[in-house]
Design goal:
InterPro entries: MTH1187/YkoF-like, Thiamine_BP, UPF0045_domain. It comes from Streptomyces kurssanovii. The chain has three helices and four strands. By secondary structure, it is an alpha+beta fold. It has a four-stranded antiparallel beta sheet, covered by helices on one side. Strand 2 and strand 3 form a beta hairpin. It is globular, with a radius of gyration of 15 Å.
């Protein structure tokens, strides 16, 4: 499964990069395949692994912020691995045609 999620601290002002970095650090230290862009962090693994990482990432932000917003989108597709790479490669292949 691939989960794309965004954790946003609320009540800490406009500059939230250091809080978001706490969440991304948890994801990167998990060892699961992941990718971060301007809007979301995507992480790939089985249900329990991925949801544990998301929970810990939220907790890292929650430890420093009075309120946290979580947006999550999941692609649940048993038996598929390396989706973070293969899905993008498929789109790029079509764009090259």
């Amino acid at each position: 499964m691939i989960v794309a999620f965004s954790v946003t601290p609320l009540g800490v002002g406009e500059d939230v990069g250091e809080y978001v970095a706490d969440a991304v650090r948890v994801v990167r230290e998990s060892g699961l395949p992941n990718r971060t862009d301007a809007m979301f962090t995507s992480v790939e693994g089985d249900w329990d692994e991925v949801m544990d990482v998301v929970k810990r990432a939220v907790a890292a932000v929650e430890a420093r912020a009075p309120r946290v917003s979580l947006v999550l989108k999941a692609d649940i597709r048993p038996g598929v691995t390396d989706g973070l790479t293969s899905k993008v490669e498929t789109v790029e292949r079509h764009l090259a045609d």
